[in-house]
Write a structure and sequence with these properties.
Strands 3-6-5-4 form a four-stranded antiparallel sheet, with helices on one face. Strands 1-2 form a two-stranded antiparallel ribbon. Among the domains are: about 30 residues; about 80 residues, no CATH class. The chain has six helices and six strands; from the N terminus they run ββααααβααβββ. The chain is rod-shaped, with a radius of gyration of 37 Å. The N terminus is likely disordered. By secondary structure, the protein is an alpha+beta fold. About 40% of the residues lie in helices and about 15% in strands. The N and C termini lie far apart (about 110 Å).
Amino acid sequence: MVCCWLGMPRDVMPRPRLRTQLSLELEPQLLERLRARAAAEGRPLSALVRRWLEAGLSGALEQPAVPVGPDVAELAERVGRIEAELAELRRPASSPPPAPPPIGGEELPPSGDAAASPLAPLPAGALTTAELAELLGIRRPTLNEKIRRAGGARVGLKLQLAGELWCCQGQAAGGNGGPPRWLWDRV
């Protein structure tokens, strides 16, 4: 049997199809999420999927790549250092390490005997920890961490900083009050 459409046999002139069915295999959880999303938007599931396919093909679903600049790299490095310091802080506390032997054979008395009086003015040429960090171009928290790892500030503590040897001379009150500050001098 031959059907005619505008005078032509049906097998010669096929009827144009406007839509085609697409079959997908999905996990049950994904299918439930799709159904819930379609219901929340008040759309049929097929309309939701069709809209997403069109958006994907047009490039609307593409995420632009974020360039990794020096700011992001610097931030990642800082986060790494902070995490390492935090891990160091979380380690179980142990007894402080013994004081390093004095360099140059010069024995300084323990902190109680040689520490400057809290009421005494700052000795000439001695720098506070903050001033030392600023002079050497070191961040104060970084310098404080080096001092902490050396067993804490105390009279006679010697540290190699920026290629120079510095010695802790004791504590003294600052010119404008406040708590006593540790004082450092170049050896």
